[in-house]
Amino acid sequence: MSGASGQKGRDVPDASGRTHRPDRPRQVGEERRSGSLLSVHSLAGQVFLLQLAVVMLLVAATLVALVAQARRDVMADARQRTLTTAQTFANAPGTAAALKSAHPSAVLQPHAEAARKAAGVDAIIVYGLNGITLTHSDPHQIGKHVIGPYAQAATGKPFTRTFKGSLGLSVISAVPVRGPDGSVVAIVSVPVTVEAVRHRVNQQVPVLFGGAVAALAVAAGGSGLVSRRLRRQTHGLGATEMTRMYEHHDAVLHAVREGVLIVGGDGRLLLANDEARRLLNLPTDAEGRQITELGLEEDLAGLLASDRPATDEVHLAAERLLAVNKRLTAPHGPAGSVVTLRDTTELQALSGRAEVARERLKLLYDAGLRIGTTLDVRRTAEEMAEVAVPRFADVVTVELLEPVLRGEESAGAGAALTELRRSAVAGLASDDLLHPVGELIRFVPDHPVAVAMAEDRPVLTAGLSASDGWRAQHPGRARRILDHGIHSLLVVPLRARGVVLGAVEFWRVKDSPPFEEEDTAFAEELAARAAVCIDNARRYTREHTMAVTLQHSLLPRGLPEQSALDVAYRYLPAQAGVGGDWFDVIPLSGTRVALVVGDVVGHGLHAAATMGRLRTAVHNFAGLDMPVDELLGRLDELVAQIDAEEAADADDGQAMITGATCQYAVYDPTSGQLVLATAGHPGPAVVRPDGTVDFPRLPVSPPLGLGAGLPVETAELTVPEGSRLVLYTDGLIEDRTRDLDAGLEALRDVLAGHERTPEATCAAVMEAMLSDRPRDDIALLVARTCRLGPAQIAEWDVPRDPAAVAPVRSACARRLTEWGLEQAAFTAELILSELITNAIRYGSEPIAVRLLRTVPTSGPAAGTLIFEVSDGSSTSPRLRRARVTDEGGRGLFLVARFAERWGTRYTSTGKVIWAEQSLGARPESELGEILLGQWDDTAL
């Protein structure tokens, strides 16, 4: 039996010997079984029902006998009464004389009726010998002739028999009436009907039944009292249970390994099993004697004789230490107690080891909780060292291989296993005693660490002073370690999934006992758990490094040169891993600039790779000068196609669905117009020059891949010059401590009322909005708008006439002279002439020319000339190389050679052919050589 913890759930016997749990009340079924006399499950109930059945049978038999006896008695009474009445009336004085009178009926009829009523019979009938009725209870029968068994009476012999006459079935007695001479002169018949007899019997039946019920009630009450007494003695047990209990009572009681005593309320020993007799050395006649008379130790005898309960109290009995548990039987039984005794003499020797085992199990449990809380290799090594100090070792050091720290796998053999970098130290106040953290240690071949790594087994050095291999590593440091009191070392290699990671060294100092072989198994288990966590961190480090490398290669390396916006940005990856947030600044034709912010749901390589694909697609679509809504529509189709490819390649049928959002905005500095659309992405913030912050309401389309071909809605805003456009991903405004609305309000507060540069705005936003451990990537893009002034724009309408080319070209030359760009006039006139000529020849009206001069917001102030020729045709020109015999076809070729870039942009009314010329381009002398190079000398 167990100690204090086990006493609560232990079954203990009550005063009747039946066991129950003191901490648990009796079940409802048990109370019902023990409390009902009619329950066939209990012995008392069975006896009660048997007694009741026997009594009922006896009462029923008696009742039947009494009813039968009553019938017989009534019938005998009827015969006797009829005969007596008949004899009395026949022999009455005057009966014979009345028969001789002239009217015998008149004389006899009153006397007969009086006698009938007095005798209580049904009739007194007088018949003549001729069969004529002289008297009758029914006057209508007088004078009638009757036929009956009266011959015997006519001969002078009276008789009694049952006969069916005029009154029905009756008991009839007939007596002759004799004359003075002794002859028979008439017959007197007295009947009593059987129905009257039965009525008398029925009158007695209720009395008989009442007596039977009273007898049955008395018998049942007696049986109930007997059964109640029996129930108390048997405690409601059934016959089978009692048989089984008494059959096994002695076997169970005397076979248990614990001593059991039952002590009465008066301090007498009522029962003791064999184990209790052995433990206490009790005499054979101990039962029935006082506890204090059994020769026990005084404190033990006092406990057993008292009414005080006890739980695992240790008492001395002879040379044994006994754990005593005592429980009182009241109120579940009569006053007394049940005592169990357990010999703990041998357990005392094992208690120390059990405590150590318990502490180590607790340490392993704590290690599972404390090691591996992060996916950082060095921090995991530190957690392993911290959890083992001081509960297993006084000092713990962890050394890891160099590739493991980088997230790579070790070579696993050779000299590489003897070069480890110390990654964690716990338990030392000073860092100069052992090798400090971060130092690369090259162990000699005989050092315990080198041996453990080479042979892949734990190495125990109980006494460091006797270990030559350990002392040879660094004799001077070894002396300082021994002087410090460190005397024992246990080295366990760290290995997980077949990969060698490093080694852990457990040290013990001064008063701590040296390590033993029993400590090796525990150290291996602790190291194995830590190795799995370190390997998880290593693998995560490798994947994280790969993902970060991939992500950095896919994100913008810098900002392109453009003159429309002053841009600054921030990108911060999440602590949990690399995500799929991205941003872009893409220069477009006509000094326009596209701002892009997107977010791929999830983290890891898949998110980074998907982000790269989407970013590349956005660059390609933007290079085609697609409208904002069309670009997001194409991007939605691309994401849907990626999902379809993932579903087709998934082996288990569970493809990873790509979730992505994107916001695309195009700013035109010539008009200050901002056209933007969003696909499931939070809208931008617009900080106006006066410091007010606005979050414009935009038509939001579904996230990418969910649009199902639906059109994307766009919004157009006109922003003043000097406004700041703030684009961001949801990681900036949402985290575990605030929701979306709170994040937007916090962003409004940090942006409002301050005139900052985009770079300062980025810094202020990140400082105010960034949480300690961001769960998601954060991309922030701040762009301050610039406008092209009227002095930087020149526009002309061109009639569809070849003669109009020369005036426009001259006007262009004059404007370039005004801008001080005479050195670029030749190239500009050449490009503009070719573009206008193509528009007049192949396009349709209206035809217009626009010349833009831009100055970049950063870098050298060379600037760019932009030529735009628009017409009403949607036909796009195609660049080709003209043959020698062709008279035309060289215009676009010249434009492509002299311009930095050129292209076509479609509008709602037609198209725009544009070209850009850098003001820092090649000198005019080189242009002539390029022109001459277009023709072959032999051809000329």
UniProtKB/TrEMBL annotation:
Membrane topology qualifier: Multi-pass membrane protein
Source organism: Streptomyces filipinensis
A GO cellular component entry from the record: plasma membrane
GO annotation terms (biological process): phosphorelay signal transduction system
Annotated function: Primarily acts as an independent SigF regulator that is sensitive to the osmosensory signal, mediating the cross talk of PknD with the SigF regulon. Possesses both phosphatase and kinase activities. The kinase domain functions as a classic anti-sigma factor-like kinase to phosphorylate the anti-anti-sigma factor domain at the canonical regulatory site, and the phosphatase domain antagonizes this activity.
Entry's Gene Ontology molecular function annotations: ATP binding; kinase activity; metal ion binding; protein serine/threonine phosphatase activity
Record keyword DNA-binding present: no
Membrane-traversing stretches: 48-68, 207-226
EC number from the UniProt entry: 3.1.3.16
Entry keywords, A to Z: ATP-binding, Cell membrane, Hydrolase, Kinase, Magnesium, Manganese, Membrane, Metal-binding, Nucleotide-binding, Phosphoprotein, Protein phosphatase, Transferase, Transmembrane, Transmembrane helix, Two-component regulatory system
Top-level EC class: hydrolase
Region annotation Disordered: where it falls in the sequence: 1-34
Localization in the cell: Cell membrane
Stored PANTHER family: STAGE II SPORULATION PROTEIN E (PTHR43156:SF2), STAGE II SPORULATION PROTEIN E-RELATED (PTHR43156)
This protein's name: protein-serine/threonine phosphatase
Basic and acidic residues compositional bias, start-end: 20-34
Major subcellular location class: membrane
Domain named PPM-type phosphatase: residues: 566-785
Catalytic reactions of this protein: O-phospho-L-seryl-[protein] + H2O = L-seryl-[protein] + phosphate
Source domain of life: Bacteria
